[in-house]
Amino acid sequence: MTCDNENTAITAMAEILSEQGFDGLASALEVLLNELMLIEREQYLGAAAYERSEGRRGHANGFKPKRMRTRVGELELQVPQTRCLSKKMSRSLDYAASNFTS
């Protein structure tokens, strides 16, 4: 993941929170979880999107929409999918489900 992507996610979260205050907490959490899942997929695959690597363990295969009800509101998440892998990847989503759901 490039530094630009990290700054973009942080900037987006900061803008949401500064404009909407606590009302924007659900949107900021949505941005955070989507970014965490992308980072997790890159680490799991051993390569970033469109990157060629000897250590690559599979391929990114789009996203699957998922709604999650949380204490701060309903989140619209984009869960990254992988191809050629059988192991469940999304620890970030499992953590969010166990700690933020109502």
From TrEMBL:
GO biological process: DNA transposition
GO molecular function, one term: transposase activity
Entries under InterPro entries matching the protein: Transposase_mutator
The entry's keywords: DNA recombination, DNA-binding, Transposition
Role summary: Required for the transposition of the insertion element.
Family membership: Belongs to the transposase mutator family.
Name of the protein in its database record: Mutator family transposase
